[in-house]
Design brief:
45% helix; 14 helices; 353 residues; Rossmann fold; six-stranded parallel beta sheet; alpha/beta; homodimer; four-stranded parallel beta sheet; 3 domains; 434 Repressor (Amino-terminal Domain); DNA-binding
Amino acid sequence: MCFNQLAMHKKSEPTIHDIARELKISASTVSRALQNNPRISQKTRDKIRELAETMGYRPNTLASNLRNKKSNTIGIVVPLINRHFFSSVISGVEEVAFKAGYTVVISQSNDLANKEIAIVQSMFANRVDGLIVSIAMQSTTFEHLKIFKKRNIPLVFFDRVVPEIETDKIVVDDYMGGFRVTQHLIDQGYQRIGHMAGPQNLMTYADRKNGYADALKKNGIPYDESLVISSTLISESGVAAVQQMMELPNPPDAIFCGNDTTALSAMIYLRNKGIRIPEDMGIVGFSNEPFSKVVSPSISTIAQPAFLMGQKAAELILHQIAHKGKSYQTVVLPTELIIRESSQRKKITEKLF
Amino acid sequence: MCFNQLAMHKKSEPTIHDIARELKISASTVSRALQNNPRISQKTRDKIRELAETMGYRPNTLASNLRNKKSNTIGIVVPLINRHFFSSVISGVEEVAFKAGYTVVISQSNDLANKEIAIVQSMFANRVDGLIVSIAMQSTTFEHLKIFKKRNIPLVFFDRVVPEIETDKIVVDDYMGGFRVTQHLIDQGYQRIGHMAGPQNLMTYADRKNGYADALKKNGIPYDESLVISSTLISESGVAAVQQMMELPNPPDAIFCGNDTTALSAMIYLRNKGIRIPEDMGIVGFSNEPFSKVVSPSISTIAQPAFLMGQKAAELILHQIAHKGKSYQTVVLPTELIIRESSQRKKITEKLF
DNA sequence: AATAAAAATGCAATCGATTGCGCACTTACT
DNA sequence: AGTAAGTGCGCAATCGATTGCATTTTTATT
């Protein structure tokens, strides 16, 4: 067959020009036919489709994207892919984006400002049609992100947002989360409630703490500085924080931990010290990590709808892409308090199986 | 400034042509200067760089990629992003790829054959420079992947590989994993050891079972069909399988579960039935999911170096890209048996904190 | 000063798909 | 028959960066 011989000569992928040559028509016609443009007769269209199929033609998206000034690509930047919350968000984004014909490119900042800047610039160079970002803990300047706004490229923040950049944002109700956790502990009869806070430059952690503080106030409990310790919330800082709290002249009888990781490490530390949970000490985490449900005692926590968050973020980006509008919204997703064993003095445990 | 006015007129991104016009030189010179081509004098190079900076010029990777027939992109297809093992692999790939100047695009098949096919075709259309794949459970035909081999596009399989396609593969030593788990249970004095197997069309699960069977044989223990139940290894199938096993006239006293998820659900089911672990029943999982370490009793399991696997996979792809060679290797990464409480009759527990 | 040699830069095609405009041909209608 | 409307398709420019080859400019040499 003739086109096979041609294909031999040039080992590269077949293009619309190859199809055109074969059929002795123009490339424009091929292009239009493959797009089902009614200007091309049905007969010609069929002929072209068939040959394209035979030749194993696949459109070169790069060329098409260049011409259309559109990459059909959405970028995602997260601190760490390898974290349940973030991978769930990505999963949600991917689902919605794929259905809309978009490709998702991801990159992780490892919570490092420099890497974040490099990534964002690379995303820009790749002309992503939109960028979804949760900023790195370490980031303090945001010029690299403002460029996207300046160039009018859709930008959506999730979870860790930048207040000074006006764009769509999607967060969970951290304030209410912190508030409800604290109220719950009070309701369970705990009197002195400590808090392991996260880095206060990040809104999400600041909000959790504010919710905590306001719940105390509402219940007439004084806010005690010594019971609030900020850290990066890794396992080790959980242990350090609980140690510090337990050495106080008047230690807490419950701790609202900034995340599940520290909740767990604190719990294990306390258990080793012979302190019973939840009898002697109530513990609540945040994020509803998969393990929080299955450890023993299971950890009360706040569920964040990560997958949903990803879906919403993708929808917001798609919306921005479609209507390059000027009005932005901040979506606040509700959180859910999940009461498990670690904070429940009267045992009514969630049944697993 | 003149270029600012120009920029006003055409609101799109500045290109090398804009720079060229401004400086009254040719675009070729600009292109070469930005690549630090020594053919361009230092003076001109500096001038160009400076103006590029001022104008906020960012190369259009799409155009460059089109011309160079190279997308600088590596595609990754996994069953589910939102799973610790896979997100860790992705994390490893991303790290190596980014350092090498590559972008990673990801997509999830949700273990569905159709979606996998669609994704792979889309990756092809996007002209990824290489594809890293762990195939969907449901996939049975592999034509969509063979195309990559036919077109000589680098392809690497990890974890779930396709035996009939000859290319680089990277797997963990599932056979030895299964063998060691079983040997360990025997060493601990368990006599009747059951196995919750995964889908046997996937090599990885078949290998685990083979390791199990061979370890039994080596120790002179007869292989008992009724003690081996295959499923998709979700929580519910773990419960179903353990139920079925416990109803046998001669139930097992230990179970090697195909993954940690079923190990956990089985364990919880057994606990609710008043069966003590590890005293009455030994349990071992597979994969070392984060929760396996922190549940109680902690679950003995096989650690798979997921992050490393991702790094290796990226290296293999980069190698294939660099030397489009014909010789492929299958890297078998070692697994590690992690002995925890669930299978240890003499308590020597891993200390957490 | 003349010529060779070296250095610096420009021209124009290329990558593959898209699209405004226009040409050729068919059918319809007065 | 002659004009108008309609149908089917092709030409050539475009998207932005790259590169082989050619041309111009500079420097060195006799």
